[in-house]
Design a protein that fits this description.
27% strand, eight-stranded mixed β-sheet, alpha+beta, Glutaredoxin
């Protein structure tokens, strides 16, 4: 009987938990980033009052980043289909030396991204590093080789996450970017909108 009571109390306490166990404020500083159209933006300040999904990528990524980008597109399409307003999407490059605005623009065109509420960002290495720390993102650059033309070739081993940020600029949840549960994310977005 004692163990049953403990189990029952534990179940009750678990059910009383918030739908969003994480809540980490990211709005205490603003970082100047440049988007795919060469427009400077104060991030995350630009998104205050909106629900935001954020990923960190690099456009030369051969595997994880294309999957994460595709999954953000799937979320974006579902959000529009379900007529959920006030949701934006941001992908921040942790390879600002190569991911210039024109490279980001080309990436959006190749991937056929809907830029109505989706932006890609680059910026100064210091700003990117601080944002990566806030979002708990790690990217370790591998060895560099060079093409016959002298262009550097390198890849990153990096964190594979999509962060859900609420209207008050709190990180509320984090998902594996390359393998998402679309319905879970849509439900979480709806719960933030309630």
């Amino acid at each position: 009987m004692k163990y049953f009571a403990i189990a029952l109390i534990s179940l009750f306490l678990y059910s009383c938990q918030s739908k969003f166990p994480e809540k980490e404020f990211i709005g205490n500083s603003s970082h100047r980033l440049v988007n795919q159209d060469s427009v400077m933006v104060d991030f995350p300040k630009k998104y205050g009052g909106k629900i935001l999904l954020v990923s960190f990528i690099f456009t030369n990524c051969p595997d994880i980043c294309p999957l994460t980008t595709h999954n953000l597109q799937r979320i974006q399409q579902k959000v529009k289909k379900e007529k959920i307003d006030n949701v934006s999407f941001a992908a921040i490059s942790f390879d600002p030396e190569r991911d210039t605005p024109s490279v980001l623009k080309n990436f959006t065109e190749v991937r056929n991204l809907d830029l109505s509420n989706y932006s890609l960002f680059s910026g100064k290495r210091e700003d990117i590093k601080l944002l990566m720390e806030k979002f708990h993102i790690v990217a370790i650059r591998g060895d560099t080789t060079f093409t016959d033309d002298g262009d550097p070739v390198y890849f990153f081993t990096h964190t594979d996450r999509i962060a859900l940020v609420d209207q008050d600029m709190n990180i509320r949840k984090s998902y594996k970017g390359s393998e998402i549960n679309l319905e879970e994310i849509i439900n979480d977005i709806k719960n933030l909108g309630d």
